Amino acid sequence: MKTVLIGAGSDLGVHIDGAKFGPVQLINDIKGTYQGEIISFLQDDQIIKSRNLSDRRKNEYEIDQFNARVYEAEVDQLKKGVFPITLGGDHSVAIASSLADCLVHEEIGMIWIDAHTDYNTFESTVTGNIHGLPCAAINGYKCHELRKFHNGNVIDPRKTVIVGARSIDDWEKDNIKYSGVTVFTTQDLKEKGIQAVMNEAFQIAGNRTKSIHVSYDLDIIDPEVAPGVSVPEVDGINEEEAMSILREVLNHIEQVSSMDIVELNPLRDVNRKTEQIALNILATTIQKVEKEKGIRKFEKKY
Ligand SMILES: [Mn+2]
Question: Around Cβ 193, how many Cβ atoms within 10 Å?
Fold first, then answer.
C-alpha cells in the first residue's frame, strides 16, 4: 500500500515554540530516499501566538484554521486509498488526521501512544495549551470548538485506548472516567509487558471497527533518551521499548488506516537524538506499510 507524508508544522497548541519545525526536519532527512508524495503545511508566520497565562483558549481560532487545511488534504489522500503518515507539529494536529480518517472509514478505533492523556477540555485545562485537549476533542468529549471543520462522527471513546500515560491532571482524570476511554500507564507497560498491553489495546480499539488510527507522541520516551519534545515527562520508556511499541503496531498493520508521529521539537533536541528516533519510527513504518500492507480492506463510505 502506498504512503503519503503529511507535514503538519504547527506549534500553536503549546506555549513553547519549536514543534512546528519537526516535520520540516524529518522531511528534509527522508526526502532523498522517499518515493511517495509529500504534502507540507506550516503555520502562518504572521500569527502571533497567545502566551497569556490566563488565556484558557490559546490560539483556538488559528488551530482550527490550520487543522481545516490539514483535514482536507488527509480526506483527499484517504479517499485515494493511500496511507497517510502525519508528522507533527504539536499533538493538536491529530484532531485533523484522526477525524479525516473517521470521515472516510466506517467505524474507526484509535490508539493514542503518549505520556499525557490529552484529555483536558476548555473547562479543565490549567495551561490553556490546546495540545492537552485533542484526545477528548476527537472522542467528542466536549471541545466541539476544535472540530468545527469536521462534518461527521467522532471516534468512540470506548474504542479509544491511551498507552504509556504517566502525567494526568486531576481534573483530566474525571474526564477520562466519564468518557469511558481506556488508559494503560507507563507502569502497565512495565508490569504487563508491551506485547500484552498492545494486544489488549488492539482488541479494544479494533472491537467491531474496520480500522484504527494510531497516534504516536514522542514524549512517551524518557527525556534522557528523547529530550526533543515540548513537554517532557520523566520516567519514560527507553528507545528499545519505543521501537517495540512500534513493532506491535506494525504487527497489526492490517487493522491500521493512518498514523501520526508528533511532538518532535528540534529546538529542544540534543545532538538530534529525538530526531533520529523519530526518523527510525517513520522509516520503519513506511517500509512496513509499503511492502507488507495489502490493498485496503476497509469499507469506505465513498
Ligand atoms: Mn500528546
Answer: 12
